[in-house]
Known about the structure:
The chain is mostly helical. Helices cover about 80% and strands about 0% of the residues.
Amino acid sequence: MDWIDALILGIVQGLAEYLPVSSSGHLEICREILGLKLQGADALEFDIMLHVATVLSTIVVLWNEFVPLCKSFFTIARDDKFFYVCKILLSCIPVAIVGIFFKDFVERFFGSGLLVVGICLLITAVLLTFAYMFRNPQHERIEGVKGHDITWLDALIIGCAQAVAVLPGLSRSGTTIATGLLLGDKRDKIAQFSFFMVIIPILGEALLSVKDLIGGEGVGENIGTFPLVIGFLSSFIVGCLACKWMINIVKKGKLIWFAVYCMFAGILCLLW
């Protein structure tokens, strides 16, 4: 992989992480188009590095919301912010189970072609369509539906949705946001919750990758340091621009257009 490839993948990750179109799926598509032959662990580790960059962009963009949550949690204030963080931690349990016990299984789907990506993109399209049918803005105005705050059960269910969305092509943000909308959660609340809940598992996986690298297991050894840096920086910068944009899109209820896009992208992947 050269730095141009890493730059392209970083830009794609920065955009697709926040749009409900599957960043991991689009990274697979770009690798196929660019003719990159990253397989298994190498492809997954590079994806994780790009995801770390977008996680950091989330923290930067939502800094005013992020810092009070940290202060409240670590001072054990027992207020709404403290319990909000506890719900985020609860939502991380399912994906942690997948990461600990099924990592080798998940790795097989990265760098393995576009069949799985195409199927998962079609599933993403179906989820977004259902969410729009039940929670589109016009219906909410007519029925007077405003949604409710995220409950403990909602957090666990959304966490299970995130655990399933580790497959390339199944959008993590799209799956979690659509699940929250189907559960009746407020639009602005579920978008922000979706972005916060990915921070812990991604940073945790990154720390494990660093541990493997220090232990001499050669994580990402077929990629190179310079492409990693370029991919990281481009993903971070583009992610900062895309994060707020996606929150506004969710508030306005325009997810149906992404469902249409995922449907066509999924069909093209299957035809490819």
